[in-house]
Amino acid sequence: MPPTLAAATHTAALARLGHALSDPTRAGVLLALREAPAYPSHLADALGVSRQVMSNQLACLRGCGLVEAIPDGRRTWYRLADSHLAPALDELMRVVLYVEPDCCAGENCTCA
């Protein structure tokens, strides 16, 4: 049976999420934003990347529809674009830890 139009649309959306998660900086941004909105400079500092790299990665995540920019005077902060994303990322981390339980073992593990 051929795939339906809905299945093709769902496939494209899932592929966009996969693309977003394929880069460690983008994945780090999503994991950080699941906890709280943040300014790009704070995200860049927390993830150890330049502000230009952060700007590029946030543009990609906006293009994927996963984050949104919120103007705040002369600055802009970012948050996850949908309230379903934080619990979905939490669940995805549980799956990752099930598949690869030693991925971040130890005191500094923040992904569980």
UniProtKB/TrEMBL annotation:
BP GO annotations: response to cadmium ion; response to lead ion
Residue intervals of the HTH arsR-type domain: 6-100
Coiled-coil intervals, chain numbering: none
CDD domains assigned to the protein according to its UniProt record, in alphabetical order: HTH_ARSR
A Pfam family annotated for this UniProt entry: HTH_5
PANTHER family per the UniProt record, alphabetical: HTH-TYPE TRANSCRIPTIONAL REGULATOR CMTR, TRANSCRIPTIONAL REGULATOR-RELATED
Name of the protein in its database record: Transcriptional regulator
Species the sequence originates in: Microbacterium album
